[in-house]
Write a structure and sequence with these properties.
This protein is 47% helix and 6% strand. It is mainly α. It folds into three domains: 125 residues, Rossmann fold (3-Layer(aba) Sandwich); 118 residues, Serine Threonine Protein Phosphatase 5, Tetratricopeptide repeat (Alpha Horseshoe), CATH 1.25.40.80; 173 residues, DNA Cyclobutane Dipyrimidine Photolyase, subunit A, domain 3, CATH 1.10.579. The protein has a five-stranded parallel beta sheet with strand order 3-2-1-4-5, with helices on both faces. This is Deoxyribodipyrimidine photo-lyase type I. Pfam families: DNA_photolyase (PF00875), FAD_binding_7 (PF03441). Keywords: Chromophore, FAD, Flavoprotein, Lyase. Its cofactor is (6R)-5,10-methylene-5,6,7,8-tetrahydrofolate; FAD.
């Protein structure tokens, strides 16, 4: 039987695996391979939290393959040399992979495909990540979208999802190849092991992704429209890292939601699928505007007067010591779990970009290194949206008040109390802005900062003044 390399990347699953399925249906024995080459990711090589998740996800994939009679061949880059060696040692006639959409890897993959085909190797790539390829949607004038609502309206009208596909219980046994390394040898686990608390909250791998989907459908889905903005509740799917690493296909998620849809929960299903639409929009933007991970999409902000970064203040923000409880709670949740609730991400980002007036890249880089769901498309969209510099952005003059945001979305301050335990002794209403009750805060929360890094009113006014100056 002929052999085909099946190159795993951000598609660490067997069900709904287009590259694996294509190899099997073409009559090939799949040779599953993973090539570790982070240096080829350009300026945005994976961060530490992503690597920690990848370590466990690769282990889960390896175990799933072995249970089916196959194996994962792990090696290190450069990718072109690794593929050449694998083809030579295995005698494989084909290479199949699922596409990635980051600018650096898109260019690399295109060059690889051309070179391999010219050498006589069969090469095919597939969509294993999205409901739509980034180039599938266009405005009436043929250009890319910059506003979500018309993008999603067009997408919904053209939504044609593949049917779910379940991988065979047994896979053909691939040949044993020289040159493999262990997953441990990739050095993906942080040193020191600051990620250890993550795994109380997560189960990386395909089985964990399916379990998370089932838990969401049975529980949080049924109040999603309202509860998704409440960090004090279990109101979201927590599927984002599983989707990022391709441990579950987005179309399987949508099919499962559609099957679970009833008259009672239809609006919640629609709301969640719309959020998946934002993920699609982020990839659309990244493809058409590949400069945006490092540059403002809106050229108005090229000469915006961002404040000079004070290293001590930036560290205080990173460590959750800003003196603003909801901001600190979010950043401490991030450090402890590799995750931050989406509503809190917006509040935290607004505080950095508006009240401190630091460039959004300062926050984007921190999230990139500490989020287990760090995704270049979504990270870029989220930070530029909050900063007001990107597509369909929140206007720069919209400055989240972190106190009123906390009062609205964490009304009993339970999220604050969980992640900022030094405030637990304060009455609920004082937890939102302890600096307004200095004597009580000094007595009951002596270890918490006495004042925010920047006065909220003064920070807001400085941000609005900088914005007005940039318009002039």
């Amino acid at each position: 039987m002929s052999l085909a390399l099946v190159w795993f990347r951000h598609d660490l699953r067997l069900d709904d695996q287009p590259a694996l399925r294509a190899a099997l249906e073409a009559g090939h024995t799949p040779v599953p391979v993973y090539i570790h080459a982070p240096e080829e990711e350009g300026a945005w090589a994976p961060g530490a939290a992503s690597d920690a998740w990848r370590h466990r996800s690769l282990q889960a994939l390896q175990q799933e393959l072995e249970q089916r009679g196959s194996a994962l061949h792990v090696c290190t880059g450069p990718t072109d040399g690794a593929l050449d060696r694998l083809l030579r040692r295995s005698g494989a006639q084909a290479v199949f992979w699922n596409r990635k959409y980051e600018p650096a890897t898109q260019a690399r993959d295109a060059a690889l495909k051309r070179r391999l085909r010219e050498s006589g190797v069969e090469v095919e790539s597939f969509n294993g990540t999205l409901m739509f390829e980034p180039w599938d949607m266009a405005t009436q004038s043929g250009g890319p979208y910059k506003v979500f609502t018309p993008f999603w309206k067009n997408a919904q009208a053209n939504l044609r999802l593949p049917a779910p596909w379940t991988a065979p219980v047994r896979l053909p046994e691939p040949p044993t190849l020289d040159g493999h390394v262990s997953i441990d040898a990739l050095g993906l686990q942080p040193r020191p092991r600051w990620d250890e608390s993550f795994w109380e909250h997560w189960q990386p791998g395909e089985a964990g992704a399916h379990e998370a989907l089932e838990i969401f459908i049975d529980g949080a889905l049924n109040g999603y429209s309202e509860d998704r903005d409440r960090p004090d509740r279990i109101g979201t799917s927590r599927l984002s890292p599983h989707l990022h690493f391709g441990e579950i296909a987005v179309w399987r998620v949508v099919h499962a939601l559609q099957q679970a849809c009833t008259a009672a929960n239809a609006r919640h299903v629609d709301a969640y699928v719309r959020e998946l639409g934002w993920r699609e929009f982020a990839y659309h933007l990244l493809h058409h505007f590949p400069q945006t991970p490092n540059e403002n999409l809106n050229p108005r902000f090229e000469h915006f007067n961002w404040a000079r970064v004070d290293d001590a203040a930036l560290r205080a923000w990173q460590q959750g010591r800003t003196g603003v409880p909801i901001v600190d709670a979010g950043l401490r949740e991030l450090w402890a779990t590799g995750y931050m609730h989406n509503r809190v991400r917006m509040i935290v980002a607004s505080y950095l970009c508006k009240h401190l007036r630091y460039h959004w890249l300062e926050g984007a880089r921190w999230f990139w290194d500490t989020l287990v769901d760090a995704d270049l498309a979504n990270n870029t969209l989220g930070w530029q949206w909050t900063a007001g510099t990107g597509a369909d952005a929140s206007p720069y003059f919209r400055v989240f008040n972190p106190v009123t945001q906390a009062q609205r979305f964490d009304p009993k301050a339970e999220y604050i109390a969980r992640w900022v335990p030094e405030l637990q002794a304060l009455p609920v209403k004082e937890r939102f802005a302890p600096w307004l009750s200095p004597e009580l805060a000094q007595r009951l929360a002596p270890d918490y900062p006495r004042q925010p890094l920047v006065d909220l009113a003064e920070g807001r006014e400085a941000a609005l003044a900088a914005y007005a100056a940039s318009k002039d």
